[in-house]
Inverse folding.
């Protein structure tokens, strides 16, 4: 009887193991502190001002970047992948830790974005202290392009 109970417990653990692993690997854009967010209109103002420009990094889809992106921004790779995070680390490696960096994706609605939280966490973990994430509620098309903010196309 004792071994049957152990077997049942073991089967339950095995059955729910993938759920626990998945929950640990997923991250939500909603977990980014509110103080670390910046509105699209504020980014548009920054890129059009005469002041020193922040480093603006697109950390989502390369196809979307080619179609339309924030002028002056750079594509570094989808931060939901280890390759994208490695490219991000390489890009910022020579920057001072207090450099103003803006991250954005815009691939999908904010709460479903797989890229912004990993990118933010990566930079925060590297000791960067002046990182903002552009809050894009719907997607880049609706929240930037359709609002008439400036765009660039291609690489």
């Amino acid at each position: 009887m004792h071994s049957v109970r152990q077997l049942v417990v073991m089967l339950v653990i095995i059955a729910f193991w993938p759920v626990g692993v998945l929950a640990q690997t997923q991250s939500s854009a909603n977990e980014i502190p509110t103080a670390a967010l910046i509105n699209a209109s504020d980014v548009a103002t920054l890129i059009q001002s005469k002041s020193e420009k922040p480093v603006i990094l697109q950390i989502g889809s390369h196809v979307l970047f080619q179609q339309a992106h924030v002028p002056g921004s750079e594509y570094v790779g989808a931060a939901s992948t280890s390759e994208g995070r490695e490219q991000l680390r390489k890009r910022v490696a020579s920057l001072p830790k207090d450099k103003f960096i803006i991250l954005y994706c815009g691939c999908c609605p904010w709460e479903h974005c797989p890229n912004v939280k990993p990118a933010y966490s990566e930079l925060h973990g590297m000791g960067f202290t002046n990182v903002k994430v552009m809050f894009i509620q719907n997607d880049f098309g609706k929240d930037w392009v359709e609002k008439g903010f400036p765009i660039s196309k291609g690489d």
